[in-house]
């Protein structure tokens, strides 16, 4: 299976998000290896979504969130469940959007370029087993379209990871 994510430059955000979901749908049907899936999904997100500086997975391992496949600068490898935006999304079991990370006292800064963040929990049998974390270098980056798209994307991939 080959993917062509190039040529998105002229697409608006709605078309880009639709393409992203299409690619992910094809990918989860085509590949069953979890590591390969998470790797390509983080790359799909990064290449289709405008204005991100980091996109990737953290997975629950022995009471911590451990870094999974991602795109962006090297990041914190382990996150506590007691501090940060990822931990909040994990504990609240809800999509967590922070429009200005400087206003979120417990934000964990892995990349100093990040200004806003969207974290989507991943569920198996009603329990959160990891999160998808997106960072942007712009404040207020994540709007209704992104929240809706990444919620759909998480529901689409969580049973395969
Ligand atoms: N900012 C996150 C930590 C992970 S990095 O953004 C990749 C947090 O506060 O949980």
Structural class: alpha+beta
Q: Count up the helices.
A: 4
What radius of gyration results from the CA coordinates? 15 Å
Mean of residue pLDDT?
94
SSE pattern: HHEEEHEEEH
Provide the spatial order of strands within the biggest beta sheet. 3-2-1-6-5-4
Strand content: 25-35%
Q: How can the largest sheet be summarized?
A: 6 strands, antiparallel
Helix content: 25-40%
**Distance between termini?**
19 Å
Bound ligands, each once: methionine sulfoxide
Low-confidence stretches: none
3D shape: globular
Please count the beta strands (DSSP E, at least 2 residues each).
6
Briefly summarize what is shown.
The protein is of the alpha+beta class and 161 residues long. It has four helices and six strands; from the N terminus they run H-H-E-E-E-H-E-E-E-H. Helix content is 34%, strand content 25%.
């Amino acid at each position: 299976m080959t993917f062509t994510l190039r040529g998105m430059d002229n697409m608006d955000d709605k078309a880009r998000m639709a393409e992203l979901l299409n690619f992910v749908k094809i990918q989860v049907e085509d590949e069953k290896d979890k590591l390969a899936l998470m790797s390509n999904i983080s790359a799909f997100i990064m290449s289709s979504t405008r204005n991100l500086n980091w996109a990737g997975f953290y997975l629950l391992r022995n009471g911590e969130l451990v870094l999974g496949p991602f795109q962006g600068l090297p990041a914190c490898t382990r996150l506590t469940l007691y501090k940060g935006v990822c931990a909040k999304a994990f504990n609240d079991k809800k999509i967590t959007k922070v429009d200005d990370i400087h206003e979120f006292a417990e934000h964990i800064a892995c990349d100093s370029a990040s200004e806003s963040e969207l974290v989507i929990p991943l569920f198996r049998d009603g329990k959160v087993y990891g999160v998808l974390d997106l960072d942007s270098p712009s404040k207020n980056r994540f709007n209704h379209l992104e929240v809706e798209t990444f919620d759909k994307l998480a529901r689409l991939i969580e049973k395969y990871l």
